[in-house]
Design brief:
The protein is an alpha+beta fold and 305 residues long. It is built from 6 helices and 11 strands. The strands form 2 sheets. Strands 2, 3, 5, 6, 9, 10 and 11 form a 7-stranded mixed β-sheet that branches. Strands 1-4-8-7 form a 4-stranded antiparallel β-sheet. It is globular and about 40 Å long.
Amino acid sequence: MTAVRKIAAVGIAPLLMMALAGPADAHGALSKPISRSAACGPEGGRAAQSKACRAAMAVSDPQALRDWDNLRVPGVGGRERRVIPDGKLCSGGLDAYKGLDLARPDWPATRLTSGARVTFAYRTTIPHPGTFKLYVTRGGYEPTRRLRWSDLEPRPFVAVTNPPLRDGSYIIKGRLPRGKSGRHMIYTIWRNSGTPDTYYSCSDVVFRGRTSGSGAAETGSAAGKASTPPPTPRGTQSGGGSASAGGQDGDANDTTINAANKSSHSALPLAAGGGAVALALAGAAAVLFTRRQRLRRLSRRSGGN
């Protein structure tokens, strides 16, 4: 029996560790309105082929932009304005993502209605509790100049802790600032409460006055030029899934990103992971049972002799 117990300890313990192990940290980026990191990532669709994204790829670490959901800085603790330098807000000060700081007027952008109630979606591949703060640039913002802290309004126009998670995205509802027009930036800070990490996202937007009709995502450099949003891969859900542009206008964001197929940072679904571990444990149990029977037969034979 001692041999059987040793086999059990060696064979099953690693499987149990795999079953109990969980994600160590969180990952994500704002997808509605689409952020630069999300637009230039593998799930960015047509936006990823834009001139701005290609330029960002040329000067960044290519693997970093593929890991669109991993733009994080540990240990900031709310001290962004002291830790992250002016001109490097979109990259979080990380050299691997420096292409996201490029100052150019043709970044994929989302058309919004000033003052409208909307629903934002923050795509997460590994959920984690935390606080989201969304800032917008002041009047006079110039997209041809790298984003500085002084370009942002002093207070967030939306701040929420632990918003609901639906279809792989945090759903954040709020009202857009009034009196905005033309090109602006929405800067999102997601500070985790369960890890030391803080995530940063830059979303290029174009504000218009309150008008009827639904807005369209802009992917060109002309502020008034609308285009069709990138296609959603078959069999998957786009952006925040059930999250739609809320409020009266329904034009929070028509550009979407699909991260449902992401494999490099996605957490294993509980049902699938549990099933895989159950099968592995069942196989290990069968092997142990067979070896136990052999040991018993050997013991009886040696006793009979």
